[in-house]
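Encode chain A's predicted structure.
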Amino acid sequence: MVPIGGDALRQERLTRDLHAALQETEGVAVGFAQEDAAVQPGHKGVGVGDVALWAATAAAVARPASQVLITAIKEWCAKDRHRKVEVTYDGYSVAITGRPDAAQERVVRDFLDKVGDTASNGPEGDGE
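Encoded structure for chain A:
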């Protein structure tokens, strides 16, 4: 999700821009979390401002899926220092901004560690 602080149209525009950027990332599949949100560019639909994305990576990617996605999101955020993306996976969440400092980089690394542990152990931590 791309939180903008109440500007629904800007949030939708930036979320759709992030969607387009992630689609260009090799090995990444991305879509809108709500089917009615997947409308043509420029369309102002029912879900204006309430647009969320899902993303997944292909198994053939050499790096862990979470790293591929986080790197792509960081690159997108770096285009404008005011951009911010909230990433949530299995109850864990992290905010990525356009100009991360050392503390945010640590938070992202911690998030990747937690997500990596969850993904390798399954959602229930059973190792399968």
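Residues 84 and 97 are 4 Å apart (CA to CA).
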